[in-house]
Amino acid sequence: MSEQSAPAIVNEPFILCENLVKIHKIADLEVVALQGLDLEVKEGELLGVVGASGSGKSTLLNILGGLDRPSAGRVRVGKRDLLKMSPRALTEYRRKEVGFVWQQGARNLIPYLSAQDNVELPMILAGYAGRTARQHARDLLAAVGLDSRRTHYMQMLSGGEQQRVAICVALANSPSVVLADEPTGELDSNSALTVYQAFRNLCKQAGVTTLIVSHDPNLARHVDRVVAIRDGKLAGETVRKVIAKHPAAPAHEQHPQHEHVFEEYAVLDSAGRLQIPKDLREQYGIRERAKLDPVDDGILVRPVVREGEADVNGQLADPEALETQRAMASRAERRGLQKLLARFRKR
After folding, report:
1. What would the DSSP string read from start to end of 230-280?
2. Between the N and C ends of the chain, which has fewer C-beta atoms within 10 Å?
3. Whole-prediction pTM
4. Lowest-confidence region among 78-82, 291-295, 313-317, 340-344
5. Helical residues (DSSP H) of the chain, grouped into ranges
C-alpha cells in the first residue's frame, strides 16, 4: 500500500504528534527545538499555539507543513505519516494539502499582482480553468470583505487587508490544513481582529484544520483552543467556551449576549510528565523534588522540605514536624489505596 493511501484510523485525531523531537545542528552545536512534544488536533479545529521565542512553535509548524523533518518521534496529518514520506511526496503534500500564512506580507503575496490575481495564481498553477479560478477567487475575497478591493495592488491595501488576501491565497486550492505563523504580528488590534474573524469565517466554513502561532494575549478569544509550548514540550492548554446569557441570543458567538469562559489545564505528556509553571514552583518552594499525596478528589503536590532548610514561609523545618508530615502522607496514601480497592470490589 502506498504511503499516501494508508487507511484512516477511526476516532484518531486529524493531526497527531507523539514524542516529537527536533535537533538543529549549527556548526559543532546541537540545539534541541522540540523535546518529546505530544499534540492532538481534531479535524476542522481552530487551534492557537503560544510560547516564548525559541520554545519550538515555528519548528512545529515547519514540520507539520512538510518544510522540515523531525529528528525522532511520530507525526501524522490525516492519512499521511510525514516521517515516512519521500521528498517528492512531501512536495506534493505541501502543494495540495497545506496553506501557509506568514507574518511578512512579502512571503504571502506578489506585489505587482492585484488581490484577485494573487488568489487566482495557485489555482492556475494547479490546473484549474480560468473561469473557475476567477469565480472562486472572487468568492473568497468577498467572504473576507474585500470584493470591492479585489483589483487593488498590494501597496494600495492596508496590512490587515493584505493578510486577509493572504488567507484567501492559502485557501485557494482547498487545503486540509492551514498553518499561520504570527499572522497579526505587524498589525494593530483592530486589523488583527478582522484577520482573526477571516480565519474563523473561512476556515470554519471550509472545515479546514487551522493552527495559528501568535504572541497575541487575546488569541484565546478567537480560537477553539490554545496550547502553550515551553522548552519544546506541550505545557498547558486553554479551552474557550461560549455561554449564551439569554436563550434568545443570536448564534453569532461575538454577540454581547454571549459570555466567553476560559478553562486552563496543565498537560501531561505520553509518559505522564507534568510541567509546573516556574512562578508556581517559586511561590510554593518546589525545587528539584515534590511529594505527591493522594487526597479525596485528586493529587496534592507538596514541596519537599529537608531538615535544617527553610520552608516557603521562612520557617526552619523541625525534625518532629517532618516526621508528622510523613505519617500524615502515609495515612493519606493508605486511605487512597483502601478507597481504590473498595471501588474495585464493588464491580
Report:
1. ETTEEEEEEEEEEEESSTT--S-TTSTTEEEEEEEEE-B-TT--BPPPHHH
2. C
3. 0.78
4. 313-317
5. 57-64, 87-97, 105-108, 115-125, 130-143, 159-171, 189-206, 278-283, 319-345
C-alpha cell read off for 8: 484512516
* 115, 151 Cβ separation under 8 angstroms: yes
d(CA 227, CA 141): 30
For position 4, what pLDDT does the model report? Answer: 47
- Between CA 195 and CA 217 the distance in angstroms is 15
How many residues are listed for the chain in this entry? 347
pLDDT of residue 291: 82
How do 46-50 and 225-230 pair as beta strands? parallel
Report which residue type is found at 125: L
Q: Which has the higher per-residue pLDDT, 34 or 253?
A: 34
Query: pLDDT-derived band of residue 218, with 50, 70 and 90 as boundaries?
Result: confident
Q: Nearest 10 degrees: CA dihedral of 105, 109, 114, 120?
A: -140
pLDDT at residue number 287: 79
Distance CA(63)–CA(74), nearest Å, equals 11
Instruction: Identify the structural domains of the chain with CATH numbers, from first to last.
Output: 44-69+81-266 (3.40.50.300), 278-345 (no CATH)
Average pLDDT for residues 217-225, to the nearest whole number? 88
| Backbone angle region of 36, left / alpha / beta, with phi > 0 → left and psi within -120 to 50 → alpha | left
Query: At residue 202, what are phi and psi to the nearest 5 degrees?
Result: -75, -45
- Mean pLDDT taken over the chain: 82
- Angle 91-160-204 from CA coordinates, rounded to 5°: 60
**What do you get for the CA distance between the two ends of the chain, in Å?**
44
Judge whether residue 302 has pLDDT over 60.
Answer: yes
For 138, phi then psi, to 5°, come to -65, -40
Cell numbers at residue 109, please?
503575496
Q: Which three cell numbers stand for residue 160?
A: 490587515
Question: Looking at residues 227-247, what average pLDDT do you find?
Answer: 80
In terms of phi and psi (left: phi > 0; alpha: psi -120 to 50; beta: otherwise), the region of 127 is left
Tell me the average pLDDT across 19-26: 89
- Residue whose entry in the numeric block shows the C-alpha cell 496553506: 99
